[in-house]
């Protein structure tokens, strides 16, 4: 029986136009195969982005991200 797991694989800082800094966490889902007689293997799946509060983050392009909150939509730019 295959198992699924989610791992934190990266994190980076971003900033809004108003100067608010936020850390964006990058998670990736993995399927762990459990075929009898073979060593288990981790097969990488989809990646997802989350804010520190666990809110989904949408990638707009390579530098800009969108965070939807109860207070509105925030566009942040990745800090390099």
Write the layout of secondary structure elements.
Elements: E1 3-16, E2 21-33, E3 41-50, E4 57-59, E5 64-69, E6 72-78
Antiparallel strand pairs: 1-2, 1-6, 2-3, 4-5, 5-6
What labels would you give this structure?
elongated, mainly beta
- Report the order of strands and helices: EEEEEE
Give, in spatial order, the strands making up the sheet with the most strands: 3-2-1-6-5-4
Total strands: 6
* Global outline: elongated
Name the poorly predicted regions: none
- CA radius of gyration is 16 Å
The helix-and-strand class reads mainly beta
User: Approximately how much beta-strand content do the residues carry?
Assistant: over 45%
- The DSSP helix count reads 0
Describe the structure.
- This protein is mainly beta and 80 residues long.
- 0% of the residues lie in helices and 66% in strands.
- Strands 3-2-1-6-5-4 form a six-stranded antiparallel sheet, with no helix packed on it.
- A hairpin with a 4-residue loop joins strand 4 (57-59) and strand 5.
- It is elongated, with a radius of gyration of 16 Å.
- The mean pLDDT is 93.
Please provide a brief summary of the model.
This protein is an all-beta fold and 80 residues long.
């Amino acid at each position: 029986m295959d198992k699924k797991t989610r791992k934190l694989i990266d994190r980076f800082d971003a900033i809004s136009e108003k100067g608010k800094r936020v850390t964006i966490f990058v998670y990736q889902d993995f399927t762990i195969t459990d075929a009898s007689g073979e060593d288990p293997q981790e097969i990488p799946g989809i990646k997802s982005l989350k804010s520190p509060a666990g809110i989904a983050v949408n990638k707009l392009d390579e530098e800009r991200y969108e965070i939807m909150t109860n207070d509105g939509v925030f566009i942040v730019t990745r800090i390099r």
